[in-house]
Known about the structure:
alpha/beta, 2 domains, six-stranded parallel β-sheet, 14 helices, 9% strand
Amino acid sequence: MTSSSACDAIVITGATGTGKSELAVLVAERLSGAIISADSRQVYRGMDIGTAKLPEPDRRRVPHFGVDTLDPDEAYSAGQFARDAWGWIDEIRESGRVPIVVGGTGFFIQALLSPLGPEPELDPEVRTRLRRYLQEQPAGVLKTWLHRLDPGRGGQLRDEGGTQRLARSLEVTLLSGQPHSWWLGQRPNTAALSAVVFCLQMSRETLYQRVNERFDRMMAEGLLDEVRHLLETHAATAPGMKSVGYTQLARHLEGESALEEAVEGAKRGTRHYARRQLTWFRHQLPEDTVWLDAARPREDLVKGITQTWSERRGRTGSTPRSRIASPD
Length: 328
């Protein structure tokens, strides 16, 4: 098991649309770093435009891990991400680079900073059948079932409870005979990552405007064709396809809605997701998180991150609370 004390890293997180990926590349170039994606959708191959992956030339500027590793019909849990990420962290450190974890999937970040307990051994065949059934259910139905079967986990997923996470908790609860919250409360089987955490934020009004404008750009870049191509080989109910934007456009392509309705639904869904992220970050990130104003010039942000990293990386024990001026 990797020792957290031997593995310092940087974490750059924030809501969708705050510019995490572009900033991380600049920081990685400045610090000789390598990037680990903590984005639960960029892990899927073929889902490029709608997940806002950086263009291939930009990704080649610094090493990237955790992008394009699965097909959309494969599930990917926070626990599996943590196991993969520790392998990548070791590889990055052995190469003399700085590990930089970048993404807005809160439970992926949490799985590294506050490791999960052990996962139960489940019958693969039964698990596959149950997962297929659960993934066909609306999120509201899954939330109701989870609150009844595992109120503790239901409360945890209140702010960031996508269909895949809800289904995973129900799957563990139903097949193991113990609530998922019980399993998560057991002694972690991985170390906690010692990291300097930076969170980008901006006013809600500005963030929502960015979200809307970004989706318009995605449509102009061919997102509808990307979804159409994916549907040729993957079901609309596949884990990856249950992402905001892909879900709404898939419904349009299957004749269930007009294009304008699908686009507006995708924008609204992305805004709702951003709001849930903001709530999660506010309550779940470490107390010594450095909060950055994403509207500041990019070079100022890079300097702030590299300077803070230089100051903290040699310290032992807890780090002081630090907050850089941010909007209300």
